[in-house]
Amino acid sequence: MSYKDFFGENRPTPHKTGDEQNITPLSPPTFDTTPIVEKYDVMSFQGFSSGRPLLLERPTKYVNRIVNSMKQIIAIPENDQYGGIEGRVYLSPIFTLPMALLHEGDKIGNETVNRYPYLHFPTNHDWDADEMSLDEYLLAIEYMFVIHDIAQEDTDGNLLTYGVDGDYTMDDDAWKTACEWSKEISKPLSDLNRGRLLGFAINSQSEKEVDTVVNLFDLWGEEREPQQILSDAQTAAGDVEDLYDMVFSIPFEPFH
């Protein structure tokens, strides 16, 4: 979908030739500071990705993707008091992959889904809310997983991974670089994704899409006027692109 009507003209983005792959092939990790991977068989978590790393899709499709992904991950206890799957999903304009908000008594579905990378966090770098936001922390982990070939998204909406088993640590210097990257990209990425969601909703002329984006904006405390959101998204795209290209091989197409 083009955002020309709402952002002006589309930003030019590079396109790969037909011989080139849309994703960098995964290769076995070569050093011992990345997550422990016992087998080199690639797992595919189908439908876990938007098909565009870091970028959100149509509002209802986004929410359904996150909710349906969590249904594959979490086994809800019979005496649940936390609102079912919907009470355990993390919806964010910054970290766009499924991430579970687990409660006491929750269980992971089976051994296979327990290897989903974003159920595991580095034991030597716990999240500290005084140092960074949860979104920035998750983005830093995503950075490490991608550059060290632990997990990649493809253009079909799948997360390809070797899986993560048990505890792991991350090299301190590499983690510092990941955190610097995540802190720099988080604000423009938030602006861009809010603009994408709004643009999709407007283009769709669907009451359901509009209602969904309104609910998301309420959740995130969004108070800007729609035109300002769209304008800020256009400005943010350039800042995101430079940082995106440092990590991901899929072409960056912010207004499609």
Q: What can you tell me about this protein's structure?
A:
This protein is mainly α. The protein is built from 6 helices and 5 strands, in the order αβαββαββααα. It has helices spanning 4-7, 59-73, 134-147, 172-204, 207-220, 226-244, and strands spanning 43-46, 74-75, 107-108, 151-153, 158-161. Helix 3 packs across helix 4, helix 4 (172-204) runs antiparallel to helix 5 (207-220) and helix 4 (172-204) runs antiparallel to helix 6 (226-244).
| Helical coverage, percent range | 25-40%
* N- to C-terminal distance: 5 Å
Spatial shape: globular
Residue-averaged pLDDT, rounded? 86
What are the low-pLDDT stretches, counting only 5+ consecutive residues below 50? 1-39
Structural class: mainly alpha
The Cα radius of gyration reads 18 Å
Question: What summary fits the major beta sheet?
Answer: 3 strands, antiparallel
What portion of residues belong to β-strands? 5-15%
Question: How many beta-strand segments?
Answer: 5
**Tally of helical segments:** 6
Number of domains: 1
Strand order of the largest sheet: 1-5-4
Sequence of secondary-structure elements? HEHEEHEEHHH
